[in-house]
Amino acid sequence: MKLLCLIFFGLTVSTSFSQDTLSRAFVNRFAYTFELDSVSIRGPGWDSLQQDIKRAQFIMLGENHSSPLLSFFTKHLLNAAAKSGFDHFLLETGPVASRKLASLYSPDEKVFGKRLHDFLSEFKMKAGSPPAEFIAMKNDVTMYAAAFANKYKVIGLDKEYASSVDYLLNELGRYSTKGLKAEYDAALLRAAFHKKMEVETDNYPHITESGRDTVISRFLDHVAGENKDARFIVDELRKSFLIYGLNEGGQYYQSEEVRLANVKKNFGQLYYKYPGGPSGFKAIVKFGNVHAERGISYYWHFDVGNLLTEIAASNGNTSLHIHGMRRYRYREDGTVADFYNDGYEVYPNIISQTDSTKWTVIDLRPMRLLILSGKMKVKSKQELDLIVKNDLVLLTPVDGAYRSSMNYE
Known about the structure:
By secondary structure, the chain is α/β, with parallel strands linked by helices. The chain contains 17 helices and 13 strands.
């Protein structure tokens, strides 16, 4: 890829900014704040980010999981990107889960939130184990409401969650003919047993045991023959059995490779069939930070972020990679936890730009140019990788507490 001297926030990188070693003061020159509420978002950071949105084919939004503030921000991102032709919102959840999400949608956010709450509460395994990933927070309701209102296709690219067996079997119940009723009931009983063992026993591999269960497997074999919708659910459930089974068997790299192959295939099926042609396919892709970077990931995979980079480049377009960071979070008792020395100490010059009340966006591209031109050194390898593999860092103010942000009992 060509390295371009990028103009961002009206500042041009030049040798006058060159320093021997990256510092907090230098990073601060490229750090810009903005504020948001339920209606609007404003500030110099947002003004410039909107220009990046207009130029990109893909927006790769890397997240810290279970961030209510990031979901709130994503609502505004979806609204703004829709005006620039973005019409896909692609998620780190399963395809069946995203279909379920769409089926629960109502333009009335209270109704939508209540439907999601009831679904999540009914089929959760236990606290922290909802039936589907990344749809379980209160602020997710607002985020997905914005996506559906703006006519996005909201699609999960990933596996179904480890806690999904119960609800997926219930989904398959609608396709269970009279002749399958006994097998269906038996499969539900076996799934309930594995769920009980997971809740009551430490380290019980519920989803792997469900995948190995001959009673459940027999029902899946037979119900898959009923129609294409039943077969789709069965196929996705069995993919999850395989991915989690490899992981729980200690084959971590292989598990992730199978998982990523599935994600990329699902993306390709959307991309290559897009009616407007591949170069017109514009998507916001929201995955965990480890998946969002260019090049090889921290876990030694060519991940989703790299896929988007290469595809955009093949079209003569660009992908925008945003790395989300959260230094502060409320505890349930209202006090604030500071995670600086809990993983973020490896990004000292970046994480120190966090504002506890305002959002901060840091443009990494000017720093990347200086580093790769040999004009600047970075002491921290992690900080170096962050700058080279991403375009922006998005720092949240104090984020909401974990348990109280969840939309299920």
